## 1
Amino acid sequence: MGGDLIITGGVPLNGTVRIPAAKNSVLPLLAASLLCSGTVRLLAVPQLADVDASLVLLRGAGCTARWQGSDITVQSMPSVCRLVPEAAAQMRASILFCAPLLARLGRVETVLPGGCRIGARPIDLHLSGLTQMGAHCCEEGTRLILTAPAGLRGADITLGFPSVGATETLLLAAVCAQGETVLRGAAREPEIVDLAAFLNRCGGCVQGAGTGTVRVQGRRVLYGCSFAPMADRIVASTLACACAAAGGRVELTGCAPAVYAPLLEILAQMGCGIETGPESAVIVRSGALHGAGRVFTGVYPALATDAAPLLAAAMLCADSVSSIEDVVFERRFACADGFAAFGADVQVQQRTLHIRPVRQLQGAEAAAPDLRGGAALVIAALAARGRSRIADTGHIDRGYACFVQMLAELGAQIEREMPCGSTCEKKTPSKKQI
């Protein structure tokens, strides 16, 4: 969508938001649809830039993929073994489309995947696992060519790190391979459980998803199904941190608090009131926000790496020091320069962001450096006094659908200023919300 975000901060957030489906679940599910002989229907999918890029990849492979209202239907008959380079280079998740095409066609060509520049994100775990399953890998500059002349076969694979992407790639390869695959050291994230549930609904046999050891009995053909992806725990985390930073009372529904519990626990330690139910959480911040001390991200079930910049934005408003270290990506805090523009006292040392208290954040101009860092700058702007402008919002649009509307319905004074004199997408609170 693009355009700058114009935000007048200092307004508490109040209201209820139903959390949309998770981008980090939808993208691997769209890749998995390549394995299915019948129609796949994903329900209530958010309209995100990365979702549109995924549809380009599916259509480029010869499939029919289209929106039907808020749902997406895919009829998978892949005939082209080359992923559209422009779409593949746009996002990290394009690597997930390789294993299904390799399983169906025996060959796939792509470019090395793109995405946010938050640090090294190698695909060696993906490739070494596929090699153990019978694939041949060849890199020619930025091109990657995978072949499986004898088909994929089950293997006993141990991941050196519980990579979410590698776990998803190898599940997608194993579910249609010959024989059994045992994946040890697997990622345990809820999105892995969601992918396994989808594959099983389509006729696959995946056991142990959500634990460190996953077993897959290969099947030759999967059929289609209708499936509702899980709610987006990172969007929920974003809104929880926005409430903590700006103040107010926000209820988040449709997303189990258990999947982002570490973030809620830290916000509670910082002085927020937190009430949780099976599928909802209420965040209240009416008094002072306190520093969190030293905080670390980690693999699930620890604090999610994607939540690190969001939580850091809330920490900017605390009355004592905090530090947050991301153990996954070395450049997770590219948003630090933007924080400093708001008057925050921040310092990055290697993978750690150190935050000292300031009297008040001030409105400023800043540019989104990446997806979650851009959302963190929006949170800072909501807490700052005065008017702010956030540029390079295309990063934010990759992971947040209707972000302006979502925040405005909570009372935020926010609008999107489109380039070249286009009409603003204005969203201000209604009298009822005030």
Note: The chain has 14 helices and 24 strands.
## 2
Amino acid sequence: MRKISIKIGLLFFCLIFTMEVCLFFLLHQKIAHSRIDEQLSSLVTRGNNHRDVLETYYNEETIHHIALMEVKSDTEVVITNKQGKVIISSAEINQFQSLLNVEKKDVPRSGKVIEDNWKSEPYIATVTPFKGGVDKGYVYMFQDTSQLKELINQLNRHFLIAGIATAFVTAIIILILSRIIARPLIKMKEATKELSQGNFSIQLENKSNDELGELAESIQLLSNELNHLKTERNEFLASISHELRTPLTYIKGYAEVAKREHLSLDERLDYLIVITEEATKLTTLVTELMELAQLDNNTFTIQKEMFYVSDSLKKISQKILPAFKQEAKKLLIICPENIQIYADPIRFEQIILNLLENARKYSSKGTITTTEISKKDTEIKISIHDKGKGIPDNDIPFIFERFYRVDKSRSRELGGTGLGLSIVKELIDAHNWQIEVSSEINKGTTFTIIARGES
């Protein structure tokens, strides 16, 4: 994973280094041209100063004094008359001859640069006209370009040293920053590797609110979800093993007993009844497991259509009412005749039957289970209220989990598989409905389905 920090570092270094090179080049060119312009301007100014002196004190002594001054400086001066004849020169005239013959018609009084090619020529030069005595003339100023070249070379060396130092410091800073940026990515890569190996109990620190923080949060949520699914899967497999083992143990045990020859017909019939009951429970469990498998894999179908709720509830009542009467319990259905719902009628019946069956199991004798339907605009509320023992508050969030039972001690007595409410929740979600639960201990429980009445 170090590769990512190297890639990030190289990318940032190339971008920043390219930008620095461009800025350094522009700055170098600006400074170099500025220094050359200063030298040329200084040379013009020096020529103008000599012009002013010549125009004020034009005599042989003044001319010799000007030449003597330039001998002691890093510049040279040549004074000519209007025809170009040299009056005086502070150095050997041959090296300046080509520049003395340049066209001088357009030379302004403020002076003019006649040579600025410092890279290839030995001198830069300026010319300034003057009026002195009875004639006119020109003051030529020359400066050796070797000093300028040395100045530029020195500037180049300084820029090179500064560039190397800047590149070195930039590389160190980018290396540190790239490691800081890559560190959370490295941790997330290690976390995903742990996930791929089945370790879902990882913890990622998230101290940022940027995209990396969101990615870390997503990986953490995925880890938590996978860990929860792993726990659920283990509990699910343990519950299945228990639920299958119990009826199979009964069936096997009573079958062995029923094979005994000395048993009477009535005793043998009792054992066969138990075997049949346990086989029925086992069949119900397998059927519900298959239904849940279909729901999980989305292989079941929801065929929605408009139908009257009251008609469906009448059919449901006919199926389940005998079970209520057998246990001396009552079932009350309150439903206006004109309410229609857009749903799968078979799945709708399955939802209501499971909820009513759950209410019947946990209600006491002589109590009333009420099913009430109401409609507001396009929203339909289906409430199933029993007066049973109720559900503790800390159990309510888990009642739709598979094989979860509030009263573990009564599981065999009530004969439930712990899958009914799980199937109800899956079917509710498949219809894009909502289900709410409210309960009070020893007062009863209410399941409320919020559905839509139109497509």
Note: Residues 96 and 260 are 139 Å apart (CA to CA).
## 3
Amino acid sequence: MQFRLLSCLLFTAVLAGCFAEAESTAKATPAAQPVDVAAVLYAQYSPEYTFTTRLESPQQVELRPRVSGVIESVEFREGSHVKQGDLLFRIDPRPFAAEVARLEAELNRAQAALHQANSEAQRAKRLQGRNAISAEQAESRLSLASQRRAELASVQAALQAARLNLEFTEVRAPIDGQVSNAFITEGNNVQAGQSVLTSLVATDRLYAYFDVDERTWNASFSNVTDNGETQATLALAGSNGEQHTGALDFIDNQINEQTGTLRVRAVFTAKDAQLRPGAFARISLKAADSRPTVMVPDRAVGTDLKNRFVLVVNAENVLEYRQVELGRREGTLRVVEAGLEPGERIAANGPARVGPGMPVTPQNVEIETQNLTLAKPQSAAEPSA
């Protein structure tokens, strides 16, 4: 009886030990968590560079009067677009018209005086041929005719200048463009060549000058020319992503030794009122050549105290910590310069709910290519380019 009781107790202890070991094993091996897993994207990628600038007009004019006088009228709507030759200001023309009239009368007098002097000179030549007049008198009349011709030429030149001044009382637009407000209004006196009446800027095209550092230019744009075939995109500050397309049309002939940069210009057609001279803008240029590049979703990248990392899913479906070197961001994707190889799988949503060493149940998803061209991974037997 005692032996039977002892056997029951021993069996109970062994059974309890088995249950404890099983429970300990269950606690030591956590359940695999379902995780979105994706193969890294390997695609042809052209790095895009962004530069800041301010737009400039190819032509801008500070409109100044060519004659002094009083502004009689302002003939334009402020802020409007005008054509070359449109009347903008009118200066009181009466003093200039009076001067033209005076010089026209003076011209008539000079013409009459020259006509008389020419008649007397011809008569002197005939009389001198019959020895009816002295050589001195004949020479005097010929000299007087020459003086009258010079006086007539002087009056003609003065009249031409007076007519120009009368014409300049109408201040017209020298170029097509958009005019500012009238800085000087009716009734105010203006000085020739000094008073600024308004400003005028050409808006059919706009320039964007920016500087590219020497290293970036040599690495990504060395084959670029200014023939207008290299596309540039422009985004204005606060434009909510709206872009305008232009092209490079100027590359400077030397690198600035002080800054180590090259001055470049992109030209944009101002088809709407959003593009204005002086506006702050960001210019984006894509590198001339593309290269195969590993890319991952930006959300898949985690950050610890010093490094950027992703969680790689190994062959046993366990997460591994992998430090990476990141490049530029392209939409929702991030370029990986080092740390990942084509074909490797990662936790697509990053380390938000998982960590290194955890077993996972992969739920395969695909990374959006964002119109990138996929590249073929190079095998070990293929020579490198």
Note: The first helix runs from residue 2 to 28.
## 4
Amino acid sequence: MTESFTQRLLDTLGPDLVALGDDIAERYQSDWAGLPRTRPLALVRPRNTEQVSALMALCHAEGVPVVPQGGRTGISGAAHPRADAVALSLERMTRIEAVDGEAAQIVAEAGVVLEAAQSAARDAGMMLGIDIGSRGSCQLGGVIATNAGGNTVIRYGMARDHVLGLEVVLADGTVIRDMLGLIKNNAGLDVKQLFIGSEGLLGVITRCVLRLQPAPVASETALCAAADTDAVIALLVHVRAALGPQLSGFEVMWPSFYTCMSEGAGVALALPAGGPHVLIEATGFAATALRETVEQALGEALEQGILTDAVLAKSVQEGRRLWAIRESVAEFSTVLGPIVPFDVSIPLHQMSQTVAALEAGIAARWPGARALTYGHIGDNNLHLVVALPESSDTLAETALKTFVYDAIRDCGGSVSAEHGIGAIKRAYLSHTRSEAEIALMRAVKATLDPKAILNPGKSFAG
């Protein structure tokens, strides 16, 4: 069956689009989740929607699984291939079809790298309000399929909030085109919402229409020091009221992260280590007024005892230096070695006690472990990375995950904030979603993908 299928695959799409065996490069055999490398049955790299449709029609008829791949930058394993499945890479679908300043939208194929879309928007005097650390390699299709978040969610929202239209290929090859790009369109169900955050289980996103924003002309960056997590939350409340929609970033680094990464990555400290540190970014359209507003907000926070210290960048270059520690996450492997990453959401009123319980519990149960905590908490998102002692085994990693995800369940949070469930978190989906919710997800899956060929074994799929 395998040889006959791969031959039909070659006959249908041709050797230019299909790679088999040793011709499948290693980069398609894994993603950032760190799962063991797996060579797929075949790799297909289509150049247009019609070729994606032809592939899905063939795989549907043959009952062969398909694993969609974008930039493979997720940490939940949603893009990790299977030996019995076709890996479908959208990396050749890189056309930016239009950037419309009047309508404030961009039309692009799913394989466009986020940074390229951001650049195209800037060239048109606009801004794409999605920004994540992997901007140079993640693709728009993957960003949408995982409903990615990032550093600017507090102002512009998750990926879902930017999507005005989608083109999607269903499991049987049917093409759904909802590309009108209208902000108001209440003609029946908003079907594109089904595919945003679905991790490739319901269809393959091939094109999109994304909302653009006016490009701010001014930006201010401040690094602030607070005594504890409660003071950080008080600061969030304060700057939200003082800055309003000008608040575009609120990044928290607890002492574990701030100290370890500044030392390990060789980043000079603008403020001494101690309690939590917060990066505040504000953007606007009047430089003098914006700086005065930020200065006033920080001054009030210092006077009220919310902050213990603060530094406001005097230039763009100094602002980048203030961000250097927060963006040092790319150095985790160098500083810490192998890590177990967690991407969770926590209700704000539970943030202080949950962070303390996680860090204390990990230190007590796994002596020698290093746990670093940071996040965007204005949108509830907390990141935790743990480097277990070298003597740890798979059982220790599983016990760690159970400890962390049980704590998240108990505080009323979510086991996935912005990276999805994928293959890594399947056992913990019920910590956040009820049986009825999961049953509904599976009912939708059965309707759109009756042969269950799209991304099997991921998230809520069987």
Note: The chain has four domains: 2-91, 96-214, 218-329, 338-431.
